[in-house]
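Field notebook, page 178. I keep forgetting to write these up properly, so this time I am using the form the group agreed on. The chain and the ligand, copper (II) ion, are recorded exactly as supplied. Prediction of the bound pose follows.
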Amino acid sequence: MSLILQKLTARNRQGRRATQLRTLVGAMLMLALSVGSAFGHDFRQGNLLIEHPYATPSLSGTHVGSVYFKSIRNKGSVPDRLVFASTPLAGRVEIHRMHMDGNVMRMREVPALDLPAQSEVSLRHGGAGTHHLMLVDLRKPLNDGDRFDIELVFENAGKRKVSVWVQSPRNTGHPHKH
Ligand SMILES: [Cu+2]
């Protein structure tokens, strides 16, 4: 009798643990989903989807800032290009590409960023080959949690003002020089 009771209790406990696990997994999924929507923001312009513009906090003593994007997707059948950007926060905005120069990561201004048809271009902070927008003559420091507007000009899709979120990167990229 007591053995049966123990078995029943054990089964019951297992059942309860399974339920608790399912609840926990459910809660984690919900959290992941809500984090996804809470920390992402995106903008549409014509056939372009501009995903999560963000900037890293500026370094003290410098007057430059870097703007990145999770990606820019061109859903159209015609190639497009990002050709210009501007913000009230900076004297000018340059389109930069990172490259390795020996052991040193450097960046150089490029005239435009190609957005091939039916493709997704990643503009996350990172190593060689990645692009970012460089804010030159920054008028005030970029601090974690700040938001500011930047206007993007695309060859085909036209102008689009987007909001940039300043956030500390989870993994810092290589230090780089001009
Ligand atoms: Cu740069």
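OBSERVATIONS:
- The mean pLDDT is 83.
- Residues 66, 96, 107, 132, 134 surround copper (II) ion (CB under 6 Å).
FOLLOW-UP: compare against the apo run.
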